[in-house]
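Submission sheet (multi-component)
Chains listed below:
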Amino acid sequence: MALNNRIPAGELAQKWSTYKSTCKLVNPANKRSIDIIVVGTGLAGASAAASLAELGYSVKTFCFQDSGRRAHSIAAQGGINAAKNYQNDGDSVYRLFYDTIKGGDYRAREANVHRLAEVSGSIIDQCVAQGVPFAREYGGLLSNRSFGGTQVQRTFYAAGQTGQQLLLGAYSAQMRQVAIGKIKEYNRHEMLDVVVIDGKARGIIARNLVTGEIERHGAHAVLLCTGGYGNVFFLSTNAMGSNVTAAWKAHKKGAFFGNPCFTQIHPTCIPVSGDHQSKLTLMSESLRNDGRIWVPKKQGETRKAIDIPEEERDYYLERRYPAFGNLVPRDVASRAAKERCDAGYGVGNSKMAVYLDFAAAILRYGKTECTKHGIANADDATAIRLGKEVVKEKYGNLFDMYEKITGENPYEMPMRIYPAVHYTMGGLWVDYELMTTVPGLYALGEANFSDHGANRLGASALMQGLADGYFVIPYTIGNYLADEIRTPKIDTKQPAFDEAENAVKERINHFINIKGQHSVDYFHKQLGKIMWDKCGMARNEKGLKEAIQEIRALREEFWKDLRVPGTASEMNPELDKAGRVADFLELGELMCLDALNRNESCGGHFREEFQTEEGEAMRVDENFMYVAAWESKKEGWELHKEDLVYDVIHPSQRNYK
Amino acid sequence: MEHKEINLNLRIWRQKNAQDKGQFENYKAENISTEMSFLEMFDVLNERLINEGKDPIAFDHDCREGICGMCSMHINGRAHGPWDGTTTCQLHMRAFKDGETVTVEPWRAKAFPVLKDLTVDRSALDRIQQAGGYVSVNTGNAVDGNSLPIDKTKADASFDAAMCIGCGACVAACKNSSAMLFTSAKVSQYALLPQGQPERNTRVMNMVAQMDKEGFGACTNTGACEAECPKEISISNIARLNREYLSAQFSL
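Outcome: structure written.
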């Protein structure tokens, strides 16, 4: 099957407006009789569901949580990018587009990313109109801050809770449509298969997680807005329930999986403290605006951070990357931290951590405050006291969270941080219209692969989720549904629904009946360790080959020796987890296969065999300037390639020095 | 941070489903690191129960970083446990002493029926939101974000109210099982912003009516909600709701 990315012809900057003016439309009367299923209620799902319902379509939403508002977008901290140029610092649609392509190490599609940058401003307008309380300046206008990989201030935020506020905005729009009956919600439901009839997506099979009932839902189109698959590593910054199951079922039903090995390891997370650890907590990238990252200059240093004098500290990011300093992109910052720790300069009990230090920022802000309040010749103690208040206003919730988890006060001593799995750039392959290789089946937000290449810039995930849901899918879905207006309501008594439902039930019963020795977590933890050690921040051919064998063996053991207590006809969280981990055990193998195939380093994918003398990632454009789109086969996978064509930007080695 | 290991006696509410009567059961949690979160202690206990062939304890949780609002345990008589301004997932075992007995119950409220063990149904809160917790603006209608300057103090106060995570601790903490803190936080967020003005009166009337319909109790201003709210949402929001409600009655 040849991949058609359906990128419109014409000048890059005109593609989206041309598309919008020429795509097919569905008239309001016909919209009413068209059903759309939206799986997942995060930023992409909630915004898509609300927007499509506003247009008049009949929408059903599904989420595994007890309310749509709990989707993991809620945990995004730092902010959302938009090319508004409110700061008069030279920002533009082109610059946001350029920074995103460069940040992604030239592995994203120009047309998609340009569209993303074009609609970014409208997202902010829409959210403000909904009553999202963004941070503001004293003049009443919106405030901005900087994020990694850029030299302008284009990040809009609401303290350290931007994702929460944006999601609650989208959720409120969704609730408004629920109230008038245009959206029907199915919470505490998990999608367990896509139903494909005559090659088109026509519905889903879902399990009611409270009663255990298996349900059939038909629709003219299905949208997967189900987030990323970082939990394949067991430990990640994702929520405990975040999973790949919906995307994986789609993959098994014919949707290609794009660039599965592109995972983002976020540089600033609270380090692992012991074997009991269930998840890792992010400390927002926004902290790198003011925090300085350092390690001691001496290996095996035993003194406390505050006892190490300035000249014995190595601010390694500022040293290696003077132009961007502490605000280099995430992949670069993560690798640099790993390099220092591996070389023996790490701090803390585990020695697998670096410092993120706010002392300089506190003093700097404090001195500004003293000037503002007319305190002449203020001593350092006064400045520090006032500076702490400023830092508290900016990052208070993050500092509190750090203290609760570690028991240490970050206003008094530097935070200890280390990289952790955070986001997956890979996902279901989609064309320009966000449609997967299964007609009528779409993937939005983190669930698709499309906009971030091999590395996502900070504050761009929220932008992409909302762009897809508010401003892209409402246009592109019409182009497909215009030809479906004669399709009557989908009859869920068709044999394809029987077949899918039976397969789902059989699998569930199988899990219950193995009655083996070990819990789901027992297997999940082992999978996570294999993935982190061999398909994590640094990868090599030998390790990846071993990982594939180890995952296969683990998978076999899982299917023989799993223990799921309870029954299928009740609320059973262990059963829910079993299905998710079974899918992770297949995905993990594909990620290793993809990483093995990609004989280059780019963005978050770092192959030790391919690095420059300075230890930077070395791309091999002549062989790998493509999207790897994997097709699921009876045995294994077949690789399809979508060549990436750069008409406007000339790929070069990324330079943040 | 120094860490040590402690042993605890746990009294945990077990209830098979909504129909079951339910009862407390006792468990021992041994060699628990003080660096663990409260939910990680539950993970360890559940792992042991599974290995012993017993039914693990069902509880709601997801983000485990204090923002999704999914976790919901009533611990030693307090919603989300002993630490102020903290969700159960952010509560760490440093909060407990070696040998302590810890009682864990689900949220107790007529409007929050128990589904299983420590899991309750909080969909009533979604329905309150549906009654008016939004600005009626379709996608694509918005004007430029900076065309509407908003007084920073009002924007900040609106944000403070909007921080509510919808966990339901306020209801669980209230002797009347009132959802006033939740509802007032939402009403305040919009009442403080110019975007919320066109629907200001209908919003407060409809949301309060839905709250009553769901079976939440009346507010008698004892302040337990504010004291146990993990996001420290201020009770002054309730005063604002009352003012909004009163003035809406005169205007409608």
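Remark: Chain B has a mean pLDDT of 97.
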